[in-house]
């Protein structure tokens, strides 16, 4: 009986380690930087196999890699990815905006990639209550990246702290990340805090929210960006 239970526990443990090491890893969203796509409390799973594996792919079982990835697959522009921050070793979730060799700049709140202004179309204005309890007025846009990928972004203003930047030249083997909540995201625009992210530090691609840990109650004149917990259940994200 003891051997049977020990065998079952060992099997479950080995199964969990295998899944967590090679296929998926679970994360939750701690900030509003990816609104309206991801919201605080969203639980999601990142596909580790999407871009191959590196020495950062697991904290449980060291993989036999030096630098780089195997196979060497670069994320696509517009992908939402989880990566390990070089400065603090924290796990961040952002959107890939710049690929190796790209030139990225923000001028008067507008995103430029390789000298071309990225198209955005206003969808609506609204107010919501943020995670700290304050009411925030925002404008929502549908942004179209080079290549045709579309996603929603939020802007409070076009003259904020990170709405006018120098031109960033993305080094080889690195990516430029941005949050969809453009005025409330610490991302690659902040070179000392985040900066360019080595491709080998990408942990996986995010495609679906499994469920929401926090509910959102709509109030008169206020909405819930991204919907309530029911709307988040097994929701695909772009």
Quickly describe the structure.
This protein has 238 residues and is mainly beta. Helix content is 11%, strand content 35%. The protein is built from 2 helices and 15 strands.
| Structure annotation, total helices | 2
The poorly predicted ranges are 8-16
Shape: globular
Q: How many runs of DSSP E, i.e. beta strands?
A: 15
Series of H and E elements: HEEEEEEEEEEEEEEHE
Percentage of helical residues?
10-25%
End-to-end distance, in Å?
49 Å
Radius of gyration from CA coordinates? 19 Å
Q: What's the domain count?
A: 1
Summarize the biggest pleated sheet. Answer: 8 strands, antiparallel
CATH superfamily: Umud Fragment, subunit A
Task: Give the name of the CATH architecture.
Answer: Ribbon
The CATH topology turns out to be: Umud Fragment, subunit A
What labels would you give this structure?
35% strand, eight-stranded antiparallel sheet, four-stranded antiparallel sheet, 238 residues, Umud Fragment, subunit A, mainly beta, 15 strands, 11% helix, 2 helices
Secondary structure topology:
Layout lengths: L1 H22 E5 L13 E6 L32 E5 L6 E8 L4 E5 L2 E4 L2 E2 L1 E11 L5 E10 L5 E6 L12 E2 L4 E5 L18 E2 L3 E11 L16 H4 L2 E2 L2
């Amino acid at each position: 009986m003891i051997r049977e239970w020990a065998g079952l526990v060992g099997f479950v443990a080995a199964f969990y380690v295998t899944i967590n090491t090679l296929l998926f890893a679970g994360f939750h969203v701690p900030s509003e930087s990816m609104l309206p796509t991801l919201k605080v409390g969203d639980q999601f799973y990142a596909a580790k196999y999407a871009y191959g594996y590196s020495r950062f792919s697991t904290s449980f079982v060291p993989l036999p890699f030096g630098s780089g990835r195997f196979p060497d697959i670069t994320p696509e522009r517009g992908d939402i990815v989880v990566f390990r921050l070089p400065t603090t070793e924290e796990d961040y979730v952002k959107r890939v905006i710049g690929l190796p060799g790209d030139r990225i700049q923000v001028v008067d709140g507008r995103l430029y990639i390789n000298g071309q202004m990225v198209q955005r179309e206003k969808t609506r204005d609204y107010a919501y209550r943020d995670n700290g309890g304050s009411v925030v007025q925002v404008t929502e846009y549908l942004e179209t990246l080079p290549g045709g990928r579309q996603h929603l972004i939020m802007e409070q203003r076009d003259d904020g702290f990170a709405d006018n930047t120098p031109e960033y030249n993305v080094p080889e083997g690195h990516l430029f990340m941005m949050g969809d909540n453009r005025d409330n995201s610490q991302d690659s625009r902040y070179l000392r805090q985040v900066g360019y992210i080595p491709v080998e530090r990408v942990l996986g691609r995010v495609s679906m929210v499994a469920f929401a840990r926090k509910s959102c109650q709509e109030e008169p004149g206020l909405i819930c960006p991204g919907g309530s917990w029911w709307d988040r259940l097994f929701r695909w994200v772009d």
